[in-house]
């Protein structure tokens, strides 16, 4: 065991800071998964790739269309929302929502297609993404360095959650969305049109996912390339499951915990080397789903036998 | 005589391969309370589900609400024709607050001031709902949920209210209160109601007319008053 | 719709019909290698497609892998995406035993089979509680793990005194073919066989000219080994599924509760199914190592997992032929996509990108929409238009019935909830 970490608060703090950054990104992708799960009890395996594509759109908007970076991000979020709405309408809605297997296969197909299209258009060489947030250190204690980037990423994640929370709790379409996810049949009986409402969920999820991916790749330690979100999907799934697959704030908490598990656990126990961060996430996922499928904050749903 | 508000002719309904209704005719006039009685599995719920054009039921025949066909429409359309449906098991939104449940009931209503007025009205009618306005509907008792379900349905200001076994799973005292309230609403506002019930005695006490459904067919119909007193009918069909 | 020809089950015509079907399959499996020998090139438009023996060999291995997924999907109604993990384990075990311990290739199955079987049972345990979507999520995550596992440098394996990454050679990949090569034994008279087919009039020219090179002989021998392993695997699974075990699994798939009530041990049979499935994946991994002679952990990640789904969906789950078609699809789709260098209206530079995954993705979605039973189901329906096999009872009555729908939906559909039957 690496006792340095236990005796050195600096090192511990440094790891916690690392984990915060990753965790906030996982939370944003997790929230996208949660939005779709809430509405349809479906896990969108293509969510990570959709987010990656959205981040590329932002990159293109900035580098080729000459948009200011933040405008490019908003445009990319809108475009991915429209794309997701189109996907929902054409590829998802024709299927019986209670029959999961064809839907899993369709989203796996989407995962392949979106990843491949990105690879065809943009190739696999990593490109540096413009910085969205100021660099530099917000707080420093010896080797523990809390980057401004981490602070802003966290703030952005919280702001995104708050915005989604507002949309869902204070608007009419938000009410419809919550009604549909609570009781599909009854929501039809009060006059809610289920299809467009679910489409709204997909669009919202895609926008949130794109935002998460943009923040992920805009970190100066990373670059953008088509396969960047593949493993993020697994971390985000673990985060979403941990928080309870249908809880927005659960996704945030779950994301932060998975971020900490990834960096802290891996460093406290040195026999879990770095490669095993992913294994730690999968382990979390497995334990949560076996022991408490509703996660920390989710609603217990009875799976029909 | 003006045509009835709800008119069903030759309605056949099935879940997949299972035929439940084998051609039933019935009607409900404006301002009436009509009950459909029958045992478990007779097709009562299916009748209401057919009117609302709900999922999983395939309907043949004709069901007209104020002259407009509902067969082949979807539930959201039927709501916009002025039909509100309190489904069996109440169908509230358990993860939504009491107040949000009422708001959702007014989903098709545009006028915001009307919505707030109506919410106040049902809070007056069922004071317990006002006390629990911020609680999640899932945390309410069965009786409270039924009150919420009825209020939610009324929020859309329907012309026709469909109630599916409102007494199911409720304590007798609560059931009596509920039926009194329903009768009151009908008396005060002239709201047309179609009620499906197993509790025949209670249902007939507030009804104008009644149909008895057996194995997917209507075997008896008539004035509620007459049915209540007819000994033979009571023993053969109503079981009390 | 009535078929053009009707054949009575058990009649001499039926026997001939079946023999011709099987005979042509066996002939194809045995003769195509002799024709291809090494590489066959087919030109379509301006694109030329190469078909190599190595592809055919690899297809046999992936067919076994798809069979493994079929066992889970077809017989438990669940989707597992984690079998690429077990394939990776199988491939590495074979590679390590052959390269470092000088075992013969095929003998490594003695180790691969029990280990992957037990690992599969271990995955089957959580699968007792996790179902549907969640199981797909967990298993795809496990699939994504293999590349990191293979690079682990802190855990040492008992008896070897080496870490995992030392055994697997980490991210460089494990080379076996330079250490041990499969050589065709001298007693197989390849030249004589080739000469025999070349001597047949008219078709002889398809079999090339002259004797085979040593490399071609080795390739053909390798193919025969793989074919033998695959045939044995299919035969064993068929017998297993026709036995008590298969009936129990079927009962579980159709209705878990009633199966449990009639005394089927759910936990036992489900974990057993996962064990068998994983063992088949392990065998496929061993076959991969035999064919390629090189194992790289990155080839056993998420994309192989999705590839198995592609094989499953393309082939379908109605019967084992689906696995054969699926195995071929896994190999042929990406390689043909790579060889496609010009398509009208499509940018040339795009075709240098990952066209294979794109085509696979499109196929997944397209088939789910238009042919959810897979290609084998499609062929059956097509065949039913021309040939119909009827049992003798029906033929005697002169009745023409629709052929029975033997399409097993990929997942059990929940029965419509009849709310009328809600008890008081």
Q: Could you describe the 3D structure shown?
A:
- The complex is a heterotrimer of chains A (305), B (240) and C (424).
- Chain A starts with a helix and ends in a 14-residue tail after the last helix.
- Chain A has a two-stranded antiparallel ribbon with strand order 1-2.
- In chain A, α7 crosses α9 and α10 packs parallel to α12.
- The radius of gyration of chain A is 19 Å and the shape is globular.
- Chain A contains 12 helices and 2 strands, in the order αααααββααααααα.
- By secondary structure, chain A is mainly α.
- Chain A has a single domain, classed as ABC transporter involved in vitamin B12 uptake, BtuC, CATH 1.10.3470.
- By secondary structure, chain B is α/β, with parallel strands linked by helices.
- Chain B has 2 domains: 157 residues, Rossmann fold; 61 residues, no CATH class.
- In chain B, the strands form 2 sheets. In chain B, strands 6-7-8-3-9-10 form a 6-stranded mixed sheet, with helices on both faces.
- The mean pLDDT of chain B is 91.
- Chain C is mainly alpha-helical.
- Chain C has one domain: ABC transporter involved in vitamin B12 uptake, BtuC, CATH 1.10.3470.
- Helices cover 63% and strands 7% of the residues of chain C.
- Chain C is built from 17 helices and 8 strands.
- In chain C, α3 packs antiparallel against α4.
- At the A-C interface, α5, α10 and α12 of A face α5, α12, α14 and α15 of C.
Which terms would index this structure?
heterotrimer; A: 305 residues; mainly alpha; ABC transporter involved in vitamin B12 uptake, BtuC; two-stranded antiparallel sheet; 12 helices; B: 240 residues; alpha/beta; Rossmann fold; 10 helices
List the helices and strands and how they pair.
The complex is a heterotrimer of chains A (305), B (240) and C (424).
Chain A: H1 3-7, H2 9-40, H3 47-63, H4 69-92, H5 100-122, E1 137-141, E2 144-147, H6 148-170, H7 172-182, H8 184-189, H9 194-218, H10 230-243, H11 248-268, H12 277-291
Antiparallel strand pairs in A: 1-2
Helix pairs in contact in A: 2-6, 2-9, 2-10, 2-11, 3-4, 3-5, 3-9, 4-9, 6-7, 6-9, 7-9, 10-11, 10-12, 11-12
Chain B: E1 6-15, E2 18-28, E3 33-38, H1 44-51, E4 57-65, E5 68-69, H2 75-80, E6 83-86, H3 98-105, H4 112-125, H5 127-131, H6 142-154, E7 160-164, H7 172-189, E8 192-197, H8 200-206, E9 209-214, E10 217-223, H9 224-229, H10 231-238
Parallel strand pairs in B: 3-8, 3-9, 6-7, 7-8
Antiparallel strand pairs in B: 1-2, 1-4, 4-5, 9-10
Chain C: E1 5-8, H1 12-36, E2 39-44, E3 47-52, H2 53-76, H3 83-101, H4 109-127, H5 132-150, E4 156-157, E5 162-163, H6 164-168, E6 174-175, H7 190-199, H8 214-242, H9 244-254, H10 256-261, H11 266-292, E7 294-295, H12 302-315, H13 321-339, H14 348-351, H15 355-370, H16 374-386, E8 387-390, H17 392-397
């Amino acid at each position: 065991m690496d006792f340095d970490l236990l005796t050195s608060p600096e090192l511990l703090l440094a790891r916690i800071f690392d984990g915060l950054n990753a965790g906030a990104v996982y939370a944003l992708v997790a929230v996208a998964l949660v939005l779709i799960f809430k509405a349809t009890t479906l896990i969108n395996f293509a969510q990570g790739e959709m987010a990656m594509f959205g981040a590329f759109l932002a990159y293109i908007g900035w580098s080729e269309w000459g948009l200011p970076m933040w405008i490019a991000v908003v445009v990319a979020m809108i475009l991915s929302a429209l794309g997701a709405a189109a996907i929902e309408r054409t590829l998802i809605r024709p299927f019986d929502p209670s029959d999961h297997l064809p839907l899993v296969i369709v989203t796996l197909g989407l995962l392949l297609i979106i990843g491949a299209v990105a690879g065809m258009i943009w190739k696999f060489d990593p490109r540096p993404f413009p910085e969205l947030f100021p660099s530099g250190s917000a707080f420093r204690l010896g080797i523990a360095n809390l980057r401004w980037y981490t602070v802003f990423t966290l703030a952005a994640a919280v702001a995104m959650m708050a915005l989604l929370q507002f949309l869902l709790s204070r608007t009419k379409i938000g009410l419809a969305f919550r009604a549909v996810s609570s009781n599909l049949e009854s929501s039809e009986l009060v006059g809610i049109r289920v299809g467009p409402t679910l489409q709204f969920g997909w669009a919202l999820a895609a926008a949130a996912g794109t935002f998460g991916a943009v923040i992920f790749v805009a970190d100066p330690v990373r670059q953008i390339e088509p396969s960047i979100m593949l493993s993020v999907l697994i971390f985000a799934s673990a985060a979403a499951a941990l928080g309870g697959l249908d809880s927005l704030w659960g996704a945030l908490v779950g994301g932060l915990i998975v971020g900490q598990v990834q960096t802290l656990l891996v460093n406290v126990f040195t026999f879990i080397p770095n490669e095993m961060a992913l294994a730690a996430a999968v382990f979390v996922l497995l334990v949560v789903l076996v022991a408490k499928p509703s996660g920390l904050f989710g609603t217990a749903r009875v799976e029909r036998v | 005589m003006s045509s009835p508000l709800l008119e069903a002719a030759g309605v056949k309904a099935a879940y997949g391969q299972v035929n439940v209704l084998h051609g039933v005719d019935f009607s409900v006039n404006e301002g009436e309370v009509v009950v459909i009685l029958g045992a478990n599995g007779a097709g009562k719920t299916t009748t209401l589900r057919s009117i609302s054009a709900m999922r999983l039921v395939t309907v043949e025949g004709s069901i007209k609400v104020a002259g407009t066909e509902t067969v082949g429409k979807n539930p959201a359309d039927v709501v916009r024709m002025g039909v509100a449906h309190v489904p069996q098991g109440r169908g509230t939104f358990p993860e939504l607050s009491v107040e949000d449940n009422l708001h959702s009931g007014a989903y098709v209503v545009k006028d915001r001031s009307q919505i707030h007025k109506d919410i106040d009205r049902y809070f007056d009618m069922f004071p317990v709902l006002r006390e629990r306005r911020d609680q999640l509907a899932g945390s309410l008792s069965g009786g409270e949920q039924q009150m919420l379900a009825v209020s939610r349905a009324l929020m859309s200001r329907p012309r026709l209210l469909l109630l599916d076994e409102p007494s199911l799973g409720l304590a007798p005292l609560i059931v009596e209160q509920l039926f009194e309230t329903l009768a009151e609403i009908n008396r005060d506002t002239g709201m047309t109601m179609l009620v499906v019930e197993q509790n025949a005695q209670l249902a007939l006490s507030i009804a104008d007319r009644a149909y008895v459904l057996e194995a997917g067919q209507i075997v008896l119909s008539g004035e509620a008053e007459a049915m209540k007193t007819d000994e033979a009918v009571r023993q053969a069909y109503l079981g009390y | 719709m009535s078929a053009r020809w009707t054949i009575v089950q058990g009649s001499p015509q039926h026997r001939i019909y079946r023999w011709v079907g099987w005979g042509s399959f066996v002939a194809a499996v045995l003769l195509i290698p002799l024709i291809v020998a090494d590489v066959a090139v087919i030109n379509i438009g301006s694109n030329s497609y190469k078909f190599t023996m190595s592809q055919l060999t690899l297809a046999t291995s992936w067919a076994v892998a798809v069979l493994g997924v079929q066992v889970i999907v077809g017989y438990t109604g669940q989707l597992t995406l984690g079998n690429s993990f077990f394939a990776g384990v199988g491939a590495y075990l074979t590679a390590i035993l052959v390269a470092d311990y000088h075992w013969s290739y095929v003998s490594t199955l003695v180790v691969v089979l029990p280990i992957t079987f037990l690992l599969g049972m271990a995955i089957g345990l959580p699968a007792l509680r996790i179902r549907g979507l969640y199981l797909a999520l967990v298993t795809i995550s496990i699939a994504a793990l293999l590349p990191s596992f293979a690079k682990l440098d802190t855990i040492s394996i008992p008896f070897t005194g080496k870490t995992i990454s030392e055994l697997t050679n980490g991210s460089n990949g494990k080379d076996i073919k330079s250490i041990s090569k499969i050589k065709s034994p001298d007693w197989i008279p390849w030249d004589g066989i080739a000469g025999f087919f070349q001597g047949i009039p008219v078709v002889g020219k398809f079999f090339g000219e002259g004797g085979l090179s040593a490399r071609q002989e080795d390739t053909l021998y390798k193919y025969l080994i793989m074919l033998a392993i695959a045939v044995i695997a299919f035969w064993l699974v068929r017998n297993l599924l026709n036995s008590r075990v298969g009936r129990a699994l079927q009962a579980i798939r159709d209705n878990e509760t009633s199966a449990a009530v009639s005394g089927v041990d759910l936990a036992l049979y489900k974990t057993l199914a996962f064990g068998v499935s994983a063992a088949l994946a392990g065998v496929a991994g061993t076959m991969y190592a035999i064919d390629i002679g090189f194992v790289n952990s990155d080839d056993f990640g998420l994309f192989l997992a999705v590839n198995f789904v592609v094989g499953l969906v393309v082939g379908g789950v109605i019967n084992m032929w689906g696995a054969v078609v699926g195995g071929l699809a896994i190999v042929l789709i990406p390689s043909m996509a790579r060889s496609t260098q010009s398509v009208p209206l499509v940018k040339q530079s795009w075709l240098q990108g990952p066209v294979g995954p794109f085509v696979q993705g499109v196929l997944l979605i397209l088939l789910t929409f238009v042919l959810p039973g897979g290609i084998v189901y499609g062929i059956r329906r097509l065949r039913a238009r021309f040939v119909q096999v009827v049992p003798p009872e029906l033929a005697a009555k002169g009745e023409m019935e629709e052929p029975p729908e033997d399409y097993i939906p990929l997942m059990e559909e929940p029965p419509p909830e009849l709310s009328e039957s809600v008890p008081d």
